[in-house]
Write a structure and sequence with these properties.
The protein has 356 residues and is an alpha/beta fold. It has a single domain, classed as TIM Barrel, CATH 3.20.20. The chain has 16 helices and 11 strands. The strands form 3 sheets. A 7-stranded parallel beta sheet has the order 1-4-5-8-9-10-11. The chain has a two-stranded antiparallel ribbon with strand order 2-3. Helix 9 crosses helix 11 and helix 10 packs across helix 11. The longest helix has 25 residues. It is globular. The two termini are 29 Å apart. The model has no long low-confidence stretch (mean pLDDT 96).
Length: 356
């Protein structure tokens, strides 16, 4: 494989010395960029864009042409695994992802199609290998998946939910069925992420979007333990380098200490958690990723720069911080404000790494 020219992101995830704080953004390839919108129109639909390796590569690289990001992230969707399981993923305009089938009974679970990621999600692996080749070692490539709990939520609810009534009914009224589904998903996700590493992914992120909807006990039982199951099955190294894993639970700040012990190398923070207090709570167990409020990008460049300064100072000196938003970038953001954001991190962060 081509030698990696910029490994600052990987080094920070492993809490190794860096010259400045690395930066990337969740959903950095997306609707806020006019070139993305043009490519999506060319593809015909969001799913067609995901399933076309060349176009998925193109939109992955688009933000890197504009901004000096320290990592690329595979362009795909978190619901590729349930789709491969036979639930029929589709997107309703203005409503987000939906499934033609749901899983709410033992019979529904038994009817799921067994999958092997290399075969049933081969289009994702083609995208990973294409992106890795086109990056030519410029920056590392992040692979990802939804967490088992998050995938189960969509599969049981049939799409997005505000009250999580169906999934919580299953969890609390039919826990055996819930655990069977989560076990199946954890093993499928582990296979999926492993295949991404074999195809060229150099770091991995698990998006636990709906973990924060659970109680403290419920989070441990239905979300965290299954992410631990996934992590325990992932390859530790590829191409002679460690493959770091980031766990991002939106709304999970109250469980930081527990998440830090799950086996991942880094914990993603949303914007509701103070990064200074988070670092004090986890110590040197894991790196931290985050955590500017995505809506801050609607503010003036001066205000964005001030917020970046506050977060950098909050984390303090030393490695182990990857700058990111606290969730995905909002589609209506002015791309020039992202320039101000990235420039601020690049210009203000080196002072926290001198003599690191």
């Amino acid at each position: 494989m081509t030698e990696l020219k910029n490994d600052r992101f990987l080094r920070a995830l492993l809490r190794q010395s860096v010259d400045r704080t690395p930066i990337w953004m969740m959903r950095q390839a997306g609707r806020y960029l006019p070139e993305y919108r043009a490519t999506r129109e060319k593809a015909g639909s969001f799913l067609d864009l995901c399933k076309n390796a060349e176009l998925a590569c193109e939109v992955t690289l688009q933000p890197l042409r504009r901004y000096p990001m320290d990592a690329a992230i595979l362009f795909s969707d978190i619901l590729t695994v349930p789709d491969a399981l036979g639930l029929g993923l589709y997107f309703e305009e203005g409503e987000g992802p939906r499934f033609r089938k749901t899983v709410r009974s033992e019979a529904d679970l038994a009817g799921l199609t067994a999958i092997k990621a290399d075969d049933d999600l081969a289009y994702v692996m083609r995208a990973v290998s294409t992106i890795r080749r086109e990056l030519n070692g410029a920056v590392p490539l992040i692979g990802f998946s939804g967490s088992p709990w998050t995938l189960a939520t969509y599969m049981v609810e049939g799409g997005s939910s505000k009250d999580f009534a169906q999934i919580k009914t299953m969890a609390y009224d039919k826990p055996a069925l819930m655990h069977d589904l989560l076990t199946l998903l954890a093993d499928a996700v582990a296979d999926y992420l492993t295949a991404q590493v074999h195809a060229g992914a150099q770091a991995l992120q698990i998006f636990d979007t709906w973990g924060g909807s659970l109680s403290a006990a419920g989070y441990q039982e239905f979300s965290l333990q299954y992410m631990q199951r996934v992590i325990s099955r992932l390859p530790a190294e590829a191409d002679g380098r460690q493959v770091p894993v980031i766990v991002f639970t939106k709304g999970g700040g109250q469980w930081l200490e527990t998440i830090a012990d799950c086996g991942a190398q880094a914990v993603g923070l949303d914007w509701t958690t103070d990064i200074n207090k988070a670092r004090a709570r986890v110590g040197d167990r894991v790196a931290l990723q985050g955590n500017m409020d995505p809506s801050m990008l609607f503010a003036s460049p001066a205000r964005i720069r001030s917020e970046v300064d506050t977060i950098l100072a909050g984390y303090g000196r030393g490695s182990g911080h990857v700058f990111n938003l606290g969730h995905g970038i909002t589609p209506g953001v002015n791309p020039d404000h992202v320039t101000a954001f990235v420039d601020a991190v690049q210009e203000l962060s080196p002072q926290y790494h001198t003599g690191d």
